[in-house]
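My current task is to audit a protein record that another person submitted. Please read both lines and tell me whether the tokens look consistent with the sequence. Do not assume that whoever made the record got everything right. I have pasted the whole thing underneath without changing anything:

===
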Amino acid sequence: MARLRGHGLALDLGPGWEGQISRRSPGRGETTHPVLHAATFALPPTRGDFGSGAVETMQPEDILVTLLEHHPDATGTPLFSASGPPFPLRPDSFSPTSLQRMLPGQSGMQAFFTWRGRALCLYVVLGSHFLRARLVRRVNDVLSTLAVDPPPVTP
């Protein structure tokens, strides 16, 4: 089992999983934040925060887990008012209409929450809505290893 770690986020990747934690270089006047991608298929080197460029290649048994951090000002706001992560996830939390980009057969879920002082969005795409009960068990196995450090203290 490999431990994926970076930017105050960590996740254990079991057999068949790969992942990356990254943070884009900010453009002029822009701030960027960490993004974690974990998948049961080969992640393309270039992909969007919500998995564009990756979800198009998914097969029915595939899973994409994305954890995006938002600006610290979002912490505790109404959108991020849920305290702590929303897992374990339930199969009935997934819907084909919850996808950023609806693709035939796929299913997704999105949740916003504040955890350890960080505003986070969890976005999960399943390759098959029909297989969601089995796939969600695999998602929960990997999410059970997620660790989030408090944000660094800035002077």
Q: What stands out?
A: Residues 2-23+31-148 form one domain. The first strand starts at residue 2 and ends at 6. Residues 10 and 46 are 21 Å apart (CA to CA). The mean pLDDT is 94.
